[in-house]
Amino acid sequence: MAESSLQSIPPGSATASIRFAHVDGAGIVFYPRYFELLARHFESLSYAAPIAINAEFRSPNRLGDRIDLILDKHSDERCWTVVGELDGVEHFRIAAAPLETTEFAADSPTLSAAGFRTPQEKVGRWQVDLRGDLTLARYYEMVNESVERWFENLLECRFSELFFERKTGIPTVRFVTRCSQLPAAGTVVEMGIMATRVGVKSLQLTSTLFGDGVALATSEQTIVFVDLNETQLRSVRIPADIRARIVRLGERET
Predict the structure, then answer these.
(1) What is the pLDDT of residue 171?
(2) How many CA atoms does the CB half-sphere of 195 hold within 13 Å?
(3) CA separation for the pair 87, 68 (Å, rounded)
(4) Tens of pLDDT along the chain (254 residues)?
(5) By CB distance 3.0 to 4.6 Å, which of 15, 43, 178, 187 could disulfide with 183?
(6) What pLDDT does 34 receive?
(7) Is the dihedral of CA 67, 68, 69, 74 positive or negative?
(8) What is the largest CA-CA distance in the chain?
(9) Can you give the chain as a three-state secondary structure string?
(10) What is the pLDDT of residue 9?
């Protein structure tokens, strides 16, 4: 998208209906789908790297919800905030701003420091935008798959077991993402992931996307354990066996 087209974008709004394609196995919106909703309804916004993203998911959205999307443009056209409201109540807020690459490089994680590494894979053409770069939604899908692999391989608990047998969900409530570059189609990528904080009911994970061995994006993600047996999701303690496995991994407990 040409820079000149960005200059004419005013604050605006749209309404999005949550459909089956948007929800995960726990019946709530799969967080990469929020970024697809933004790209669909506000396609002229700048989603290009280098970019910093702060996202807060305050209340879950479910199948059938009609979400009001409210766009606020800032004085810098590369900065924007989209708030999602349901019946006048804020459910999520996603804000983006340009990232100084030098700021990212100052403390970029290294591949050797990653607590868990996913298998290498190539970015497919189906995962990229018109510029040929990985889209934000596909990036967050990679993050989610890494978390799933982390649970399965290190915590010995599959998501299917967690959702359908234990009736426990793990919605994300907060993302802090810094992305210096989104990899192009054909780039060999892998994800490093580790727990950085273990609470009573919540867990913070840090994931880093590496392209050809170089850190491209890192996300601090806070997830909360909830009881799926109730209509209103209620936070619960991290299951004792899962928490014990995290602690045994040598992660810091607080």
Answers:
(1) 93
(2) 23
(3) 8
(4) 333 333 344 578 999 999 999 998 778 899 999 999 999 999 888 899 999 999 999 999 999 999 999 999 887 878 999 999 999 999 999 999 999 888 888 788 887 777 899 999 999 999 999 999 999 999 999 999 999 999 999 999 999 999 999 999 999 999 999 999 999 999 999 999 999 999 999 999 999 999 988 999 999 999 999 999 877 889 999 999 999 999 888 644 44
(5) 187
(6) 96
(7) negative
(8) 55
(9) CCHHHHCCCCCEEEEEECCHHHECCCCEECHHHHHHHHHHHCCCCCCCCCEEEEEEECCCCECCCEEEEEEEECCCCCCEEEEEEECCEEEEEEEEEECCHHHHHHCCCCHHHCCEECCCEECCHHHECCCCEECHHHHHHHHHHHHHHHHHHHCCCCHHHHHHHCCEECCEEEEEEEECCCCECCCEEEEEEEEEEECCCEEEEEEEEEECCEEEEEEEEEEECEECCCCCCEECCCCHHHHHHHHHCCCCEC
(10) 45
Copy the structure tokens of residue 237: 């303690």
150 by Cβ neighbours in 10 Å (0-12 / 13-18 / 19+) ranks as: buried
- Residue identified by tokens 């999701």 is 233
How far apart, in whole angstroms, are the C-alpha atoms of residue 117 and residue 153?
Answer: 11
Token match 């993050």: residue? 143
pLDDT of residue 88: 96
The tokens for 92 are 């999520």
Tell me how crowded residue 48 is: count the other CB atoms within 10 A of its CB. Answer: 17
Query: In this structure, what are the phi and psi dihedrals at residue 240, rounded to the nearest 5 degrees?
Result: -60, -40
Q: Is 152 left (phi over 0), alpha (psi -120 to 50) or beta?
A: alpha
